[in-house]
Amino acid sequence: GCGNSALSHDLHELGYTDVTSIDFSPACIAAMRARYARCPGLRWAVMDIRALAFPDASFDVVLEKGTLDVLMVEETDPWAVSPQAAAAMRRVLTEVSRVLRPGGRFISITFAQPHFRKPHYAQEAFGWSLRHAACGGGEAGALHYFLYAMRKGQPLQPRDAAL
């Protein structure tokens, strides 16, 4: 779900020259291809995050920034996520795990607090460890956001596995 974010381009400018970005919107992907046509190594694909068209173990890093939040947008109680939303989240995370290489990292950036998001990420079936950190909030009125980092092939800590 890259949307029209400049993140892919920013990563390219920082030296990450092999970046694949996806979104379910053909119009969005067409616009991004046109906007960044001068950047070799930036690839764009129309794709559904619930059914990635990439082979197993294709990526060293999968990065999402707010995309998974869309799966929860209609939820009215973050303490009691509907079976449909939980299943959609599980499907996406299964796909992310599948396309990560051993030792690969999944990075998720969201406003979702750990007590709401960690139970989704902390599944032994995904085969990854889990860490998180709170970021932002340094200025008065600024919101905290959270960075979750999973590493494929590393075990969950017992406290996370218990979630």
UniProtKB/TrEMBL annotation:
Species per Swiss-Prot/TrEMBL record: Urocynchramus pylzowi
Listed GO biological process terms: methylation
Source domain of life: Eukaryota
Residue ranges annotated for the Methyltransferase type domain, each copy included: 1-107
UniProt keyword terms in alphabetical order: Methyltransferase, Transferase
Keyword Cell wall biogenesis/degradation listed: no
Family: Belongs to the methyltransferase superfamily.
GO molecular-function terms, A-Z: S-adenosylmethionine-dependent methyltransferase activity
Stated name of the protein: EFMT4 methyltransferase
